[in-house]
Structure formats: C-alpha cells, structure tokens
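Exercise: predict the structure of this protein bound to nicotinamide-adenine-dinucleotide.
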Amino acid sequence: MTDITADGQARTAAAGSNPAAPGGGRTVASAVTPAVIARLARGVTADGEGGTADTIAPLTGETLATLPLSTPADVERAFQVARRAQPAWAALPVRRRAAVLLRFHDLLLRRQDEVLDLIQAETGKARLHAFEEVMAVASAARHYGHRAASYLRDRRRGGAIPGLTSAVEARRPKGVIGQISPWNYPFELSVGDALPAFVAGNAVVNKPDTQTALTALWARELFIEAGLPAEVWQIVLGDGPVVGPAVVDRADYVAFTGSTRTGREVAQKAAARLVGASLELGGKNAMLVLADADLDRAAEGAVRACFSSAGQLCISIERLFVHRSVAEDFLARFAERTAALRLGGGLAYGADMGSLVSPRQLETVGRHVDEAVKAGATVVTGGRARPDLGPLFYEPTILDGVTPEMAVCAEETFGPVVSIYRFDTDDEAVTAANATPYGLNSSVWTRNLRRGRAVAARLHTGTVNVNEAYAAAYGSVASPMGGMGDSGLGRRHGAEGILRYTEAQTVAVQRLLPIGPSMGMDDEKFARLFTTGLKAMKAFRLK
Ligand code: NAD
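Solution:
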C-alpha cells in the first residue's frame, strides 16, 4: 500500500486492518507556501554570514524550508537589541504586559489552524497532538495573564525590629532570558516558557531547533500582533553546539529544554557564569496499573500515555508496570486499542498517530526494538517501520519480556515503544518505577484514589497523574511541572515557573533608632537590651 500522493501528501491509513481515517485534502505544500516561509524567515536574527539550512517535512521527506542561520555575532546583536528594549518593557505596569498575554490567547484560539499546519508540517505529528500544544500555550497565557500581577506584587515581610524596621520583598526581572528549545513540542516549548518571562518584564533570546523554527517564528509574529515590542523577543537559529553556547554565554538566566546530555553542558556553562538555569530534560516514565484499576480506562489512557506525538514527548510512558492478576486482561485490551490506531499524516483531524520527526529518531526506535527482539523480547503489536505511509512512520509498539540488558529497558527511546512488566505488590511496583536516574512523570491507575495518592507520594517524579496519562498534571498550569534527578532542575508553570525569571530584592526601611548602640548606650548595654528584645520576640511568637 503506497499512501503518498503525487503531490507529496501522506494519507491516513490504518495501523492494523481497520479502515483508513479521513486525511483531508490539504497538503503541506499548499498550507506552508514559499510566501509564508519567506515572511516568517524574516524574523530570524541573521545577517546572511551564517549560511542556510534546509528543514524537511517529515510526512513526505521533502524539503520544507530553507532558513537563514545565525552566527555568534548575530547572537551578540540579538542580545544587544533585546537588552536595549528590555528596560522600557519592564517599566510598563504588569497589567499592561499581562494584557498582551491575554490578547495573544485570543488571537491564538482564533488563528489556531495556521499554527496547527506549521506544527504538523515541521514535526509530522497528528493534528490532535498538535492541538495539545495549542491547549497548553492557551492555558499558560490565560494563567499568567490573570495571575502574574499577584505572583509579582511586592510582599510586606516582618522587619528586623518590630515597629522600627519595615521590609518589602520585591521581584525584579532578570533581564534577558536565553531560551533553548527542542523540536518535539515546538510551539509549547518555545512559547510556554517565554510567556512568564515576558510578563515578569524580561526580554527573551530564543534558539528553537532549526527543524521546527517556523512554528516559533509564527508564535513571535502573533505575539507582536498582540502588542509585544518586536525587539523584546529575538529568535536565533543554528547548530546547537555553536549557537546554543553563544546564547548561554550572554543570558542573564537560561531556560533550557532538551536532552539530559545537553542539559548537563548547559548547566556547567551557566554555573561558570553564576547565572541560574532551569533544565527540563529527558525521562523514562512509568505507568502503574494497580490490581483494582478500571482496565478499560487504563488501556485507553495507556494509548495516550505511550503514543501521543508518536511517543516523542518527554512525559510519555515507556515503562508499563501491571499487577500480575490483571496483566493478561489489561494487555489484551491495550494491544487491541493500539493495533487499531490509525496512522496518518493529512493536515486534518482523524489520524491517531503521525510520523516520527527525523531519520535519527526512526533509527533509534528501530534499533531499540530490533535489539530487544534479538535478545528475546516479544512484540505484542507493532514493531516495524511503515515506509508505505511515509518515510518516517513507525507502528505503535508494545514489547513484552524486556530485560535489563536491553537498551529499551532503561534508555529513553523517545518514540512509540512501551515495555510491559508485571508486579505482585505495590511496593514492588514503586521500587521498580523508581529504579531509574530519571524522574520526570508517572501515572498510576486505581479505583481507590486514596491508594493512588499514597503510591504517588512514593514515586520520585516531578509530576504524577492518577487515572490520567500526563495531561492532568501538565494541564494544571497553576502547579509546578518539571523533573527530579536526571530529568532536570527547576520547574515551569505556577509560581516557580514565573519567579525563576526574577531576582528577589528586599527593601528594608529603618525608622527612629538604628540597629546598634545609640544615644550614648555602650556596647554591653545594647547587647543586654537586644537579648531581652530577642526573648520577647520569641515569647510573642514573632516569625
Ligand atoms: P537536544 O538536547 O539535542 O537539543 C535541544 C536543544 O538544545 C536544541 O535546540 C539544540 O539545538 C540545542 N543544543 C544542542 N547542543 C547544544 C549545546 N551544546 N549547548 C546549547 N544548546 C544545544 O534534545 P532534542 O533531541 O532536540 O530533544 C529531545 C530531548 O528533549 C529528549 O530527551 C526529551 O525528553 C527532552 N525534552 C524534555 C522536556 C521536558 O519538559 N522535560 C520537553 C521536551 C523534550
């Protein structure tokens, strides 16, 4: 079966024998025209010296765009422009900056189809999974648009001496944030982390992955339409190991999302400069199906947990632990749903899973599966590439009998592959789930919510979803989201997600008497008086 049409559009087709889903009549080429690409490419800070790079449309393997690349000198210029613009932006009342976020929210929901096309064209993911990015960005824009003033307001604190000292904790913007983002969720990971930086009064120099730069450039354009001064958001492009460090070298704070390996390099560079960094890194996330789980809901949730964006999702589940008493029953339901997923790449809703993003991703996924099978694992469903659908399609795959010496057991595959393990007690499941240096996300399924919360408390991950895959925690944008261990440092979302972009400044005012001997009092008398004062403050439970 060949599903690439003459004009290069990948059609939707079934993973198993179920009928093909609707693919829609639009093609990547008709949606992302040369005029659109040329307009967006003007948003890159690059003077032409850095050359160009081609990106591909993963759905077809054809060239999508030729984009200008930035040199380190361009990065320097981007920082200079951003640095000049930042003070005036920071001087606006926070409500004016928040209004830009709220206008961006409305524009985005109105014009979402434009960015859904770009995300699909650049990543090859299914439209529903592209829409998850719109959901995430709109939620963050709404949250910080409404809550930023309260997160950032001055807070009165207890002074050194009651009545004589008053203290206020203020939040000042860091300045220019260096933001480095990967290709897998190009809209959410470029914009979601920039929103709180902007509303806190910072400028941003963003280096998205070149493969998915059009999506970030579109977002910048929409932000400018919503009222953001153009200079406040700079976008530079280029080779990660060259342009990435040039950004880290100049930033007042670094917001990095990507692999653990690169994250360590970024952290070392930031540490040497004594600038802070948030690091959102990889994972090898676990799902636990307890003995009392609703197996239909769990099987349906597992499909989303493992195969959203073809598993190229940092919080995706790659290890699935099932209680032995329900394992075969659960596996039958999960495998049936997985085999029925409709693979496809039309620029329309209808496909359940799209393509992988790059030949490198396809190679890793194929290698992890093939090596495991060679070493004795069994394929429950999937387990092969689908060149008949497009050059980078791979079937959603469930493996059983995976053992520790197989790469797929402990390494992040970052693809549509999950391994099944059985357990006998909750303790055993928790120990196995925690037996990884990563600690990003996990998912627990049980009918007993108290038990679910108790298990959650013992899992070493930054987020735990009870009876959901990942969207419950990720979508709760008022709560922090991030990783423990090798999955990172710092958090996005909630208070931490915005306060990371600020410096705390304490302004204390002293009235009437100084904090030291005064009015002829000698040192000893002062010490005695202050000792009495300290005792009194404790007695009156001053904090
Ligand atoms: P990557 O680390 O290769 O690249 C990420 C970004 O860093 C890219 O923009 C890249 O150009 C840039 N980069 C590369 N080398 C650099 C260097 N030396 N200095 C500075 N920047 C450099 O990661 P990837 O393969 O593009 O993305 C997939 C990884 O990202 C997976 O491991 C995934 O789990 C992780 N991820 C994590 C989260 C999260 O929130 N925790 C979200 C999405 C993806």
